[in-house]
NAD-dependent DNA ligase (Alloalcanivorax profundimaris), 275 residues
Amino acid sequence: MGLVGLLNGIAADRRLNNIEVLYLSNWLNNNRYLKRDPDAIDLYDAASIILEDGIVTADERADLLNLARDVAYYRRVGPERSRDQSTNELLGVLQGLGADGLINLEEAEFLVDWIAKRPQVQREWSVPDISQRLQAVLADGEVDETESNELVALFSSITGDDFENTALAGGLSAWSFLDTTERVDLEGRTVCFTGAFTLCKRPGLIDMATRAGARTKTAVSGKVDYLFVGSLISPDWMFTSYGRKIQKAMAMRESGEGIHLLDEDCFRSSISSLI
């Protein structure tokens, strides 16, 4: 579903530019689980051949665009898709739309229509922010440079993509959901951990939190004050218990509960005297 979403996003305005061609080739190369997928192989080979001589002609872009649209069309699935499939496709669409660092009017309108046709996607934590921003951007019927940059930044914060600066297509998880707090007092607080930490493994984290006066929980609930998110993250974070904890905590926070989502650096600062 990620590949389908990516292709739909890249082809949303029915044009391909050189950066999008390079992005698609890079994305396919980085997603090695697709190496046995005949459609992915065809796309990768086509993009590689185009890029081989360093010159991307209009005809080559048109041929690759048609191939991408054909693959997306024939691999589409019916409306009864799973939550994970829908989320994966959404991430792919956002990656494709932001691949070249620009969002134009056709692409913004495409995303509005794409979301409207998928009720299961509308329940995902990031979609209300996307829809609200799109509504504001499209109010005057155009997308200016500032609005384009804002949409690219929003999509990047959700997908983790930063192709322009990292040359890595298919980024890591988003950090936009975290509270910007440098340090907290753990005394008497209840904390939960999710993801992998560079500091140490889970037993060590629990030990340090306990020594700092905190209680620890293994699951997110209304009793948890702080959910600390590890900095070692993977592209499939949304489909793991890691991602589910984050989404549950975000839903709780949006409903007015007092849980805070904090990064590993905040935890490190909060227990600095114990290290």
